[in-house]
């Protein structure tokens, strides 16, 4: 959450942190984001679904919105397709990051709904490397399932007071 809190200020803008009460009413939240001329919206996919079900996005997003980031949960292609029906000119970034990393490790930029059965997690962000390894810690060929492993400065050094999970 550090970069989400500071990125707006570093870029010369502001970060809007919404109250629980505001989040419970998606249409009111969208009205406030429109009034604030927010340029980036970051939500979990389940909340994006709630935003798309309400009336607040019926006419599309506000003119200042430049990008939607979805993070924290697996996002389905159908949800991305619904977004592009409402906001065809506002790209989506699927931001992926496991618990062991300090934040996002990959970003997938989409200007249109994915045509695949799943939404891609994208490419590693700067200074990180991502590998898909099999049970013997060998690289998997493209398309072969495995475990996502990350290296670089964004990876935690271990689990606090949990030596069994720290390897």
Textual characterization of the structure:
With 167 residues, the protein is of the alpha/beta class. Helices cover 25% and strands 19% of the residues. The protein has five helices and seven strands, in the order αααβαβαβββββ. The strands form two sheets. It has a five-stranded mixed beta sheet. α5 (77-86) links the parallel β2 and β3. α4 (45-53) crosses α5 (77-86). The radius of gyration is 18 Å and the shape is globular.
Task: For the structure shown, list the relevant keywords.
two-stranded antiparallel ribbon, 5 helices, single chain, globular, alpha/beta, 167 residues
Strand and helix map with partners:
Blueprint: H1 2-10, H2 20-23, H3 26-35, E1 40-43, H4 45-53, E2 67-71, H5 77-86, E3 92-96, E4 106-110, E5 123-124, E6 129-133, E7 147-151
Parallel strand pairs: 1-2, 2-3
Antiparallel strand pairs: 3-4, 4-5, 6-7
Helix pairs in contact: 4-5
First-to-last CA distance: 25 Å
Specify the number of helices. 5
Low-confidence stretches: none
Give the overall silhouette.
globular
Helix content: 25-40%
How many strands?
Answer: 7
Determine the structural class based on helices, strands and strand pairing: alpha/beta
Rg (C-alpha, Å): 18 Å
Mean pLDDT reading: 89
Strand order of the largest sheet: 1-2-3-4-5
Hey, roughly how much beta strand do the residues contain?
A: 15-25%
The main β sheet shows up as:
5 strands, mixed
